[in-house]
Design brief:
10 helices; mainly alpha
Length: about 210
Amino acid sequence: IWAEAALESAEKAEVFYGDAGMIALGFFRILEHELNDLLIEPLRNSKSVAAELDELWSRLGKSLSTEDPTQSKATAAKRKKAHMLWTQMIERLRPVLDGEKTGLELGPLHILLEKSRSTSGEDLELKLYFASKLTSHLNLAGQAAFKSGAIAKFIEQSAVEQYRNPPAHSRFVSLSTAQACKRHVVQCISGLAEWTIPSRLMKIAPSMQ
């Protein structure tokens, strides 16, 4: 792993004043890859998901976009927001389902994880559908971690802003931050390894566990 080798080289230097941003970004991309490979792969490799999603969205999308004069303004606003969110999410998933992309970027992935673990709302059928797919390779403990938000927390905004965004936007990253990023990624991947069904375990980055 390049990030591992680069960090080791930087740590061996008597004095390191350089920007460790690419090292931190390298580690965080490992986490992004592992999450997509574990959670999004069941969507990506299924021959039926595209058709199932089309059928589901044709019904629920129409329902969410239909105005109901009997509902309060607050409820109407929630429906509109849900419709907009799922419209954007499904559009982002299309290239994944078509095989053009291997997964989602961190922002959409985090939103999908958070939305899918919710158990309420008029979009509940969509949430349950995605939850069932996203947890296909998780054991019971992993499914509990998904529902509690523990997995989504791996890529919450604070972690992304601390470790991923600075190097992605050419901001300086210290060696200590890169080291902290590695610890974060190792902890996350160790958690994923504990929460994965045995048949999938060997696919979790062995060098990071």
